[in-house]
Specification:
CATH superfamily of the largest domain in chain A: Alanine racemase
Helix content of chain A: 25-40%
CATH architecture of the largest domain in chain A: Alpha-Beta Barrel
Order of helices and strands of chain A: EHEHEHEHEHEHEHEHEEEEEEEEHEE
Number of domains of chain A: 2
Shape of chain A: globular
Oligomer: homodimer
Distance between the termini of chain A: 36 Å
CATH topology of the largest domain in chain A: TIM Barrel
Number of strands of chain A: 18
Chain lengths: ~375, ~375
Amino acid sequence: MTILIPPAASVGQPAGAIDTPALVLDLDVFERNLARMQQAADRAGVKLRPHAKAHKTPAIALAQIARGAVGICCQKVSEAVPFVRAGVTDIHISNEIAGPAKAALLAQLALRARMSVCVDDARQVAELAAAAARAGSTIGVLVEIDIGQGRCGVADAPAALHLVQAIRAHGQLAFRGLQAYHGGLQHVRGAAERARAVAAAGARTAAVVAALAEAGVACETVTGGGSGSAEFDLAGGVYTELQPGSYVFMDGDYGSNEYGGALCFEYSLFVASTVMSVAAAHGAAPRVVVDAGLKSLAVDSGLPLAWGAQGRSATLDYVAANDEHGIVEPRAGATAAALPALGSQMLLVPGHCDPTLNLYDEIVGIRGQAVASLWPVAARGLSR
Amino acid sequence: MTILIPPAASVGQPAGAIDTPALVLDLDVFERNLARMQQAADRAGVKLRPHAKAHKTPAIALAQIARGAVGICCQKVSEAVPFVRAGVTDIHISNEIAGPAKAALLAQLALRARMSVCVDDARQVAELAAAAARAGSTIGVLVEIDIGQGRCGVADAPAALHLVQAIRAHGQLAFRGLQAYHGGLQHVRGAAERARAVAAAGARTAAVVAALAEAGVACETVTGGGSGSAEFDLAGGVYTELQPGSYVFMDGDYGSNEYGGALCFEYSLFVASTVMSVAAAHGAAPRVVVDAGLKSLAVDSGLPLAWGAQGRSATLDYVAANDEHGIVEPRAGATAAALPALGSQMLLVPGHCDPTLNLYDEIVGIRGQAVASLWPVAARGLSR
């Protein structure tokens, strides 16, 4: 007799009966977020290529494409595999790759889907060309330029032009344009400051596009941008294509950004936890312990927000995470009476959704107060 | 044609050819760590029940048991399932559990293995008793006492005695003793300070044991302790059984502890990464980008240590982690010449091994410079 772990939930069950910790998606909010970003991109005449590193879930990629997305981004080659299997036919690896194993897998995927990848070094170009030749496929290549993040990407137009020439020397590589991404801009808090920072980065990108044009090189695609800067990226006129990921869920951390305009998104993703100990509430400082800690929530961008029936809890804070425990206390001004009872369910908004998703094999979708879907996070753990 | 992701490594391959990011275990060091802890426990006459939440890997649990461990701890009920499947016959869930689904699974496991769990509330006792009665199994129960961490556990001997009486009222629950654990003690840096803190916590435990004895309740088991405090826990004479987990690997963070005595452990676990971009090295501040970030390394206890052929790198630091990128810079005093080349492999010591293990499905074991084993991390993601 094999012992099986029962599923966290089954379709039709009340949301309150989900076994915890579990990743819970409010499908109504999720669909509003998808529609809002697609409509904004459509209005601006910019293509939307959402980033699948945020959700790692083929069902979500297909929902984005059904609403008008031209394809998806992945951050790693292996991450793209479950999406190709699920029928996604246009994937950009928004990153450089290192080593022949990754280039070989990418070249195989390019037999099945329109694939592209970034480069910032001529040796990467040579490796991609060799792999494409061996597989008999064509790989699209974008030159990544650094627009201020100081991570990957070449520094200037001459370096970009050098790589364009290297790409064009190979018949099985197709030059597709530029990638220009600056992760730091996503989290500049003030709306006006963020607008200025995005404009400065956009000006750097535009200058490289112009210099390449002067040298006779047209950039079919200029791709980049993210959920925090999307409003300004769309208005800037530099990007032909946007890569936002987090707008689907909204991180707890993004809630600290000030949003001036119409392009706001709502929290759709929660970690459902259960109060597993209230022993310390008697005698010591009032608190309860929930069953979701570091192994159920990424804390690199801050602790999760406690969520109540009316939105963010006005009385409770998640104040510390251990491996499998979270400590919840009444906020200053609230009393121990605000604490939830032993065995009760508590929803938490993760501080950073991308690495939180990467901890789960399944997303439990709810509509209203009932479980409506179970979606495999098929690309979980695929970081090679 | 299904596209398959090639394995990260195969047995017999050179370690330098492992596809990255990958979790790499130095088997010689690992075996020395296992032997050292078991010998120390044997010398002290204390049972060793290593914590499997650290490794989530049945092959490692079986190696610990083969060397003399009496069984293992798990932190969640679902986490125990792959270990029972692999033939581990004695598992303590070192935590309270909430909800009938978890109690039912535990009661099922208790038909196959000697299982125990912690309580700190009479309602948990009632739930366990109901589940054991339904399954027709016997569940061992330990009362958790708070010895200063302020997380789970009852505050004092009268509260513990009340729970012992509740447990004894149920024929299918077996009272087994006390759990007394204080996670904060593991990371007190100075050896003398740590010894004093462990002694104070031990005195609280001993007082509860004595008060129960006076009331006619013998504690067959007093379990707790961890890798950072093991030396003092073993010498203290309070614990009958120790639960260390991290000694198998040693976290980067534990390296900041001062170890006075003989019981030191070595780093055995690494994340293998590859340099994927060196573009920024020309012009900007010197640095390279490796392909292991937040999705390949837990950073809650600090960034990983860069590792060289002679141990911790004397010239390089991993200074920032993004989702799938790590930034590596020369340490103050070193120059750009110290930076590794594009495509070269770089080993990193994770700051916190437990949540890092929870990101991978496989451990690549190496002996010398060759791949010697591939072990499934079968309990990865099992946090319910």
